[in-house]
Amino acid sequence: MQVTKRTTSGFTLLELIMAFTLVGIVVYKAQGAMRSASEGIRDETKRAMVEDQARRVLRQVGFAVMGSDRSSLLPVNEGFSSENIRYRVNLGVNEGEVVWSDREMVAMDTDRLNVYWAENPDESREKKVVWSKLVAPFLEGEILNGVDDNDNGLVDEKGLSFVIDGNAVTIRLTLQLPMDENNTLLQTVETTVTCRNLDEEE
Question: Would you kindly state where each structural domain of the chain is located, as residue ranges?
Answer without folding.
Answer: 40-194
